[in-house]
Amino acid sequence: MTLNQECTIELSTATTRLRVSARTDIGSVRKINEDSILAQSPVFLVADGMGGHAQGDVASQTVLRVFDEHIARDLPSTPERILDAIHSSNDAVRDLSAEDDYGTAVSGTTLAGIAFVDAGDDVGYHWMAFNVGDSRVYTWTDGVLEQLSVDHSAVQEMVDAGLISAEDAEKHPERNVITRAIGADEFVDADVWLLPALGEQSFLICSDGLTKELDDATIARVLARDISLDPARRSIADILVDEAIDHGGRDNVSVVYVESAFD
Question: Which domains, and CATH codes, for the chain?
Answer without folding.
Answer: 2-262 (3.60.40.10)
